[in-house]
Each structure stands twice: as structure tokens, then as C-alpha cells.
Amino acid sequence: MTLRSAVATLLRHEDLNFLLTNRIPRRLATRFMGWFSRIEQPLVRDLSLAVWRRCADLRLHEAEHTRFRSVHDCFTRRLHPGARAIDPDPGVLISPCDAIVGACGKVRAGMAFQAKGSAYSLADLFGGRDPARRYEEGTYVTLRLTASMYHRFHAPYDCRVEHVTYLSGDTWNVNPIALARVERLFCRNERAAMRLRLAAGDHVVSLVAVAAILVAGIRFSFLDVPRRLRHAGRNEFPADARFRKGEEVGWFEHGSTILVFAPRRFRLGPLVSTGSVIRMGQPLLRLP
Q: What are the CA-CA distances from residue 259 to residues 96, 150, 205, 206, 254 (Å)?
């Protein structure tokens, strides 16, 4: 048995996976990894990337550059131009990121599902009732980024980012095992809710970037948000940033999740079902 298959077999054991990724000092581990990943010493970098390649399906052939200063530089890599095709259909919202589709469906009574049988309140997620009312009977999609995936996220449509609400919080792992065991996990973790006004139909959609264990940083190309792990509470950032469909909006400093919320009458795209893999630029939702 290879090292990679042995690690994969161990991590498939739910109890061990949960223990390794959640029953550790999460904030301490996150701060340590944030420091360690930025070490630019060649031996540390090369050994770390070698272990990462052995334990995960890390594909770097699409990266803009294939030589990295550090592990963090690899985490936050850009793709070379043209690596993702952007669906030009004006009736389609594209996926903002590469991801595995988690729960998806309709918002009912202000609730959405993070996993089968485990729901959370949009009012808790957004830190207020107004967004919850906006998306009642609307459509939501959970997009989970794994550690080896491309970590940047993009505009799903021609739009204007009007506001960002940044809520500090915990750093639970957001893998399926944790989502099934930790109630309201998305509402507990550090997260940033972006309000986007689409160029067509004056529709408002929201992207909620949820951070996770090991680095937990959320960064934006249009907004300078300082690190929030040491600052409790809710932080409001008015914005007026315009993007074309597919333009970069921000990035994670490690794999995590983006929750997409759209008003009623938006429909799921043909590639969207629980467990399916979707790439940035592919159809996610269809406008009414």
C-alpha cells in the first residue's frame, strides 16, 4: 500500500478524521500553519510540497507559475490565462470557484441545509434577518473547496459588490464529516458575506466565503480586510466594486467553502447536484 492510499484509508475512518481535524487546538494550529506556510526556505518548501503531493491530488499544470516561493504561494496560486472557460450565456450565473457541490436546493422558513438532516438559519449565517428574508424561497448552493484545489473565487456574473459583512468566528474543518456532526457549523466559523447586485434584472445575490482550520484567511481584490482571528464581532465594509463575469474577486489562504444564495425563481444548473465536481466558469444557476 502506498503512503497516499494509506493516508486516504485512515482519513476515510470518520472518527479518526474528526479527531485529527477538529479535536485539536484549532486557533493555535491555524496560526501555526499560517506562519509555517509562509516560510520561503527552499528545503522546507520542497519537503512540504512533496508531502502534499503524496497525500492529495495536487495538480499544478494549470498554474500560472510552477515554481513557488512557499507553500502559501502554492495555496494561493493563480491559473494561467484561458485555463477556465467562462460560460458566455447571459442567462447563466457561473460557479465562482472550483468545488465539490454540497447541499443545494430551496431556502425554506429561513433555513438551508449544511448536510442531510442538519440545517442552519440564514439569519445566524448573515448576522441579520434582512438577508434571510431576501432569500426566502430562493435557491442556495454549497461549494466546497478541497485543500488541493484552486483557491481563488470569481464574479459569477457582471455585477457590483455593494457590501461585505465580515464575521469573526471559529475554524472548524468544513469537510463532510464535520458538517454532519457539528450543528450550525457555517454559522460558527469565520466568514465574509458579499452582497452582489447583478447587471441584469437588478437581482441581488450573496456569496458567503466560509473559512476553515489551517490558515483561515479570506482576502479580497477590492477590499483590504485585516486578519480577523483576533478580533471578535461583526464588521461592516461598504463597497462599490464592479466586476465582469469571471473576474477575480478574492481568494482563500486554504481550502474552504463558498455558499451561494439567489432570490426565488433562480434555478440550479444542469451540472449542480450533491457530490458533483464543478469548475469556475461552468453554469451554476439560471436567471429567471
A: 10, 17, 11, 8, 16
Q: Are 121 and 261 in contact (CB under 8 A)?
A: no
One DSSP character per residue, 217-285 reads -EEESS--PPP-TT--SEEEEEEEEEE-TT-EEEEESS--EEEEEE-TT-EE-TT-STT-EE-TTSEEE
Q: Which three cell numbers stand for residue 273?
A: 447536484
Going by their DSSP bridges, the two strands 139-144 and 234-243 should be labelled as unpaired
Give per-residue pLDDT as tens, 199-221. 988 899 999 999 876 656 788 99
Catalytic residue numbers read: 98, 154, 256
Q: What's the grid cell of residue 147?
A: 485543500
Whether the model pTM is above 0.90:
no
Cα–Cα dist 245/243, whole Å: 6
Return phi, psi of residue 204, to 5°: -115, 125
Domain boundaries, the chain: 3-75, 92-286
Cell of 241: 466594486
* Pick from 103, 132, 119, 120: nearest CA to 263: 132
Pair 79, 59: CB distance under 8 Å = no
Concatenated DSSP letters of 117-167? TEEEEHHHHHTSHHHHHHTTT-EEEEEEPPTTS--EEE-SSSEEEEEEEEE
Q: What is the pLDDT of residues 47-91, one digit of tens each?
A: 877 776 777 777 788 888 888 888 778 788 899 999 999 999 999
